[in-house]
Amino acid sequence: MKNQEGQYFSPQQIPEALEILSKYGKEIKIIAGGSDLLVQYHDRLYEIAGWLDLKNLTELKKIELNSSEVSIGAMITHSQLEKSPQIKNYFPILSRAAAEIGSPQIRNRGTIGGNIVNASPAGDLLSPLIAYEAKLVLLSSDEKNIIPAEQFFTGPKKTILKPNQLLTQIILPLPPQNCYSSWVKVGKRKALAISTIALAMVVKMSEDNQIIQGAKVCLSSIAPTPLEIKEVREEMIGKTFSQVNFTKLAQLVEDKISPIDDIRGTKEYRKEVARRIMIHCLEEIYSCWRDKCLPIN
């Protein structure tokens, strides 16, 4: 670690990083992979008074599985997230979303923690994380806070993270055996696309795989923060798939969002696409459930 005048800190342990944040938090920028930060400041790097580089914090580069949850270190890259057997097995749409981020170079550098803290309304990982009921571990020298992911975002590029806090882990509860998920991203091109709209859906079934016990539908790129349509959950819980009206649910999603016009799409376009991809996700989940439940003739 260099001294204060060097304006660059590269701690070897988390407590050392927290000590630096406690002393200089408002004056420095935290850098993980740099795939967002260096782009944002590419022509004004001189504005940054100091850097806290997390590259040597090996504690943040682990994915750990136990009997009830998976813990993902904030420095896990998108490529690692995409290829992790634990993530593919238990959280397939998170793996799928990671695979859709940017280019191979970006996926190899960018991190899950950076994607979360960047807090872009179009962040690809945010809607799957909320749909999977992720919790975020925020550490400071004084305390440890664990909060639901949906409470972390307060606006475009804005979060509740304090200058003296570091996002260290993302905790995902293991889903039940009968859990189905789908994720769709729509952009203006097939590769290197910032999403125009994305939708993540997770449905949890009863032990006998017949009754819907949980449902979360989360969208990004349609509001200042990732948005769960809670009315969908209320409409689905307690029913069988045969009792669920896909068209009604898709219309509900369209009616509950108020997107803006921007360079990637108009309000009307986003509302129409939201309705269509909601039906797509429902059909994909139903197909997976049907293949698992019904005998093959």
How would you explain this protein's 3D organization?
With 297 residues, the protein is α+β, with helices and mostly antiparallel strands. It has three domains: 4-53, Uridine Diphospho-n-acetylenolpyruvylglucosamine Reductase, domain 2; 60-173, Uridine Diphospho-n-acetylenolpyruvylglucosamine Reductase, domain 3 (2-Layer Sandwich), CATH 3.30.465; 179-293, CO dehydrogenase flavoprotein, C-terminal domain (Enolase-like, domain 1). It has helices spanning 14-24, 37-40, 78-83, 85-90, 92-99, 104-109, 112-118, 126-131, 230-236, 246-256, 267-293, and strands at residues 8-9, 29-31, 51-53, 63-65, 69-73, 135-139, 144-148, 153-155, 158-159, 166-173, 179-186, 197-205, 212-220, 227-228. Strands 4-5-10-6-7 form a five-stranded antiparallel beta sheet. A hairpin with a 6-residue loop joins β13 and β14. α10 (246-256) packs antiparallel against α11 (267-293). The chain is globular, with a radius of gyration of 20 Å. Mean pLDDT is 90; it is low at 1-6.
